Amino acid sequence: MKETILKMSDITKVFSTEEMETHALRGINLEIDKGDFVSICGPSGCGKSTLLSILGLLDMPSTGSYVIEGTEVSQLSLTAAAHIRNEKIGFIFQSFNLIDELSVYDNIALPLRYRQNPMSHSDIDQAVMSCLTKVDMAHRTKHRPNQLSGGQQQRIAIARALVGNPALLLVDEPTGNLDSKNGDAVMDMLKTLNLEGTTLCMVTHDPRYADMATRKLHLLDGKILAPQAQTAHPTLVDAF
């Protein structure tokens, strides 16, 4: 029996101004099981970024339920959300988001140093070096990010995302700033991590990479399209 990592039920997100309301998400229902590799596709403005922000606890839904590993997180305070995010979610961004003033080693160690329950120096070192080895970058510990190529920086970003042993890895356009060769290499690495048991949820505009996922979701106007409706005349539904 599969273990459910997260479950969203009837998630909505409304952005309001004095002039208008924008319904970014409309009744999203989503389950991701341990070991899944889910890709999320859709046109610009369909709600992909909003959904990813809520999945990563960078934003909260307007209504609905969001449960991560048995914990309801849809109405957490910013501080509580930050603690859950640090311990359960890893991020890989299009722009890498590494800190040039820190070494490769310290970039990867940083999330562990903000843990609610402090880790020992030896445990941090073991976790950092293990993740660097996974991405074939153990020889670059003392380099700064700006001394590395784009492909190498994305490998470091993957190691940083993995270092906390997260329940879920959220991946936002991981190849957007890479050439095709480095993009393919990064996607091969993500696929290998998934085959080794890492749970992935990826937003991408590239259909080649989306097809590498074991489940492919399409968003349109803030709703998930039914799999059987991804043809000439799709019908909008709330679908798992």
**Name of the top-level CATH class:** Alpha Beta
Structural class: alpha/beta
Globular, elongated, flat, extended or rod-shaped: what is the shape?
globular
Largest sheet: 6 strands, mixed
CATH homologous superfamily descriptor: P-loop containing nucleotide triphosphate hydrolases
Query: β content, as a range?
Result: 25-35%
Tell me roughly what share of residues is in helical segments.
Answer: 25-40%
In N-to-C order, the SSE pattern is EEEHEEHEHHHEHEHEE
Strand order of the largest sheet: 6-7-8-3-9-10
Task: Kindly give the count of domains.
Answer: 1
Cα-atom radius of gyration: 18 Å
What is the number of beta strands?
A: 10
Q: Tell me the distance between the termini.
A: 17 Å
On the 0 to 100 scale, the average pLDDT is 90
> What's the helix count?
7
Which topology does CATH recognise? Rossmann fold
Unreliable residue stretches: 228-240
Give the name of the CATH architecture.
3-Layer(aba) Sandwich
What would you note in describing this structure?
By secondary structure, the chain is an alpha/beta fold. The chain has one domain (4-229): Rossmann fold, CATH 3.40.50.300. The protein is built from seven helices and ten strands. A six-stranded mixed sheet has the order 6-7-8-3-9-10, with helices on both faces. Strands 2-1-4-5 form a four-stranded antiparallel sheet, covered by helices on one side. A hairpin with a 2-residue loop joins strand 4 (63-68) and strand 5 (71-72). Helix 3 packs across helix 4 (121-134) and helix 3 runs parallel beside helix 5 (150-162). The protein is globular, with a radius of gyration of 18 Å. The relative contact order is 0.19. The model is unreliable at 228-240 (pLDDT under 50).
